[in-house]
Design goal:
By secondary structure, this protein is α/β, with parallel strands linked by helices. Helix content is 25%, strand content 24%.
């Protein structure tokens, strides 16, 4: 007897007393999950997001709409970036500062060409405070998934408080599951069997998150 047979046998025994006309699974299971843990003000939620982002080794910055272009220019200059990839729907006023050579998100760009780009700037779909996670859904201000996976430096702008939620269930309520979703918790990293951390394996080595107030 195989392991598969053993498992299926246990399932059959567990369901032996369930009538054929029992309520369907989708209806029978109550899904009144807790959507957040505790009550927080908007400010406390944003502070928790910043704390958890930093805990994942993302670099967190705070600014407002008026100072955002200057901050983006300084972050790129501080990185020594000579080129920056820009999604087609990134707000034009974000790019008002002195930026390096801009590279448009073009479907014809090869992985080798993307690898030569120093940085990428995107928006996001939503940011989750409890997990320190940024979610991208390939919206106009985010571009295709690969542009945030190949360049070594990713600057992600989060509009505060409109794009910040407390929990994963709240985030799921805002997202379209049919879209290509990328969930980012800090810069790309992995560890080998000796627990030696290596960054930049499956995506950007450096993630900078800019929390910009919408007021």
């Amino acid at each position: 007897m195989s392991s598969r047979d053993v498992i299926l046998g246990r399932v059959r025994r567990a369901l032996a007393d369930v009538p054929d006309d029992d309520t369907p699974y989708e209806v029978a299971v109550q899904r009144g999950y807790r959507r957040a843990h505790g009550e927080r003000s908007i400010g406390e939620t944003v502070d928790l997001l910043a704390e958890n982002l930093a805990d994942y080794r993302a670099l967190v910055h705070r600014t407002d709409a008026a100072r955002l272009p200057g901050l983006l220019a300084r972050l790129l200059a501080g990185r020594g970036a000579r080129s920056v990839l820009v999604p087609p729907g990134l707000p034009a006023d974000w790019l008002a500062g002195e930026l390096p050579t801009r590279v448009a998100d073009d479907a014809e760009l090869t992985p080798h060409q993307l690898d030569r780009v120093d940085s990428v700037i995107t928006g996001c779909a939503v940011a989750i405070a409890e997990t320190g996670t940024i979610v991208l859904d390939a919206g106009p201000d985010q571009g295709r998934r690969r542009i945030t996976l190949v360049p070594d430096h990713h600057i992600c702008v989060v509009r505060v408080p409109g794009q910040v939620v407390s929990s994963v269930p709240e985030a799921l309520g805002r997202l379209d599951p049919a879209r290509p979703l990328t969930w980012i918790s800090g810069p790309s990293a992995t560890s080998d069997i000796e627990l030696d951390r290596v960054e930049g394996v499956h995506g950007p080595r450096t993630l900078e998150v800019v929390l910009t107030s919408e007021d």
